Amino acid sequence: MEEILKQILNKLEKLESIENKIDRIESDISAINYTSKQMDNKIDSITNVEANLMEVKANI
H or E element: which one contains 60? Predict the structure, then answer.
C-alpha cells in the first residue's frame, strides 16, 4: 500500500512538472504573439511613412 502511494505521489509530481512546462510554453507563445503584433504595427508605420514620402515627392 505504501509503495502504491509513493508511485501515485511520484506520478503527481511528474504531472505538476509537465503542467509547469506547459505554462512556460504558453507564456512564450504569448510573448511571441505580442512581439509579432508589434512587428506588424511597425511594418504598418513604415508603410505609412513610405506612402507619405511618395506623396511629398509627387508634390515637389
Answer: none
Cell of 37: 503584433
Q: What's the pTM?
A: 0.68
Closest by Cα among 34, 33, 56, 36 to 44: 36
Dihedral angle computed from the Cα positions of residues 21, 25, 30 and 32, in that order, rounded to the nearest 10 degrees: 150
Query: Is residue 55's pLDDT more than 90?
Result: yes
Identity of the amino acid at 7: Q
